[in-house]
Write a structure and sequence with these properties.
Structural class: mainly beta
CATH architecture: Beta Barrel
Largest sheet: 8 strands, antiparallel, barrel
Strand order of the largest sheet: 1-4-5-6-7-8-10-11
Shape: globular
Number of domains: 1
CATH class: Mainly Beta
Strand content: over 45%
Number of strands: 11
Distance between the termini: 35 Å
Order of helices and strands: EEEEEHEEEEEE
Number of helices: 1
Length: about 200
């Protein structure tokens, strides 16, 4: 069902970073490689259950990198991966079912990945981010909406950090995940919160 990753949708906001938070010493975000900070990255999803409620869950353990070129944000490169076996809900039995071949098939497809292909600025601190999402062995182009959080130096780790909130939806049937359709919804709502830390060379 989802994305992750999502997460990555950060490149679009480089031209606005210096206006939002404690800047790097040069007054601009440092160029180079940024890595997903997995301990504070959340990939959450919601799906209709029989039309009576929306059932929620999450993935953890995201990894990935952002190769950032502040002089040419559109030329930056983002790749994110999320382990499908990390799926978690409030129901342990459901967790096992979601990892099974009927749903995510975590054994055959241990990761869902996102590779950015296009970024379109939509306003101050917002953008549409399009990329190739691979899930359940199927790749589709998907577009998510991203909002820039405060960028700057993390006061605890001292690493320059760029954070984003990302939202959107995908159709699980597009990826061959069709169990219990239409009783369980086809549209999967996503909310992704992800910080990226600069890794000096």
């Amino acid at each position: 069902m989802l994305k992750r990753t999502v997460f990555a949708f950060t490149l679009a906001f480089v031209p606005m970073l210096s206006a939002h938070a404690q800047p790097a010493p040069s007054g601009a975000p440092p160029a180079g490689v940024y890595s997903v900070e997995p301990h504070h990255t959340q990939v959450m999803f919601g799906i209709s259950h029989l039309g009576f409620s929306t059932f929620y869950g999450a993935f953890s353990g995201a990894s990935g990198s952002l190769k950032l070129d502040p002089a040419n944000p559109a030329g930056s490169q983002l790749d994110v991966s999320v382990p499908t076996a990390s799926v978690a809900t409030i129901n342990p039995t459901l967790n096992d079912e979601l990892r099974s071949a009927d749903w995510l098939d975590a054994t055959a497809f241990p990761a869902m990945t996102f590779h950015s292909t296009k970024i379109t600025l939509t306003g101050p601190g917002t953008a549409d981010v399009t990329g190739d999402l691979t899930l359940h062995g199927v790749t589709h182009s998907e577009t998510l909406q991203a909002r820039l959080n405060t960028p700057g130096v993390n006061p605890l780790t001292k690493a320059y950090t760029i954070g984003f909130e990302v939202s959107g939806s995908i159709k699980r049937s597009d990826f061959g995940v069709k169990k219990y359709l239409p009783l369980v919804g086809d549209d999967v709502q996503l909310i992704i919160s992800a910080p990226f830390e600069h890794k000096p060379s």
